[in-house]
Amino acid sequence: MYFVSNIVKVTIPNYLASLPIPDSFGGWFRLGFRDWLALVPPTVAIGVISYYSYITIKKANEAGNGQVNPGIRKDINKVVDFIDIEDITEKVSLCRCWRSKNWPYCDGAHGAHNKATGDNTGPVVVKHKENK
Ligand code: FES
Q1: Rg of the chain over CA atoms, in angstroms?
Q2: What is the pTM of this model?
Q3: In this entry, which stretches build a coiled coil (predicted)?
Q4: Ligand 1 — pocket residues by CB below 6 A?
Q5: What would the pLDDT profile of 16-47 be if each residue is shown by its tens digit?
Q6: Quick one: which of 13, 51, 78, 94 has the fewest CB in 10 Å?
């Protein structure tokens, strides 16, 4: 525990105090090459932390409030679709990710959803027995 405590209370504050951050706006124009070079690691670290924070917040927002349907027919209480089996000539892919713009059919939107969230959803494919 001492190791972590020392890093947080001594090492990081000493490192930050040693950075050549100017006291005034004009000071940025007087920084030398070595000064700018010294600012690269903390800038990269802040960038990486910001990026992963953004990704984490984005994923949390996409997870929403527990609802699986982000926007299909939100004006009704329950989304129910009927498809006549006789209308299916060969096979049909039905969306299970709730992201399709061609609901209730899969339009491939599950791919972007899976990539963005780490999910693994995909369609259910219904086909005639003779088309196996
Ligand atoms: S678009 Fe939703 S499962 Fe393919």
Answers
A1: 27
A2: 0.52
A3: none
A4: 95-97, 99-100, 106-110, 121-123
A5: 999 999 999 999 999 999 999 999 999 999 99
A6: 78
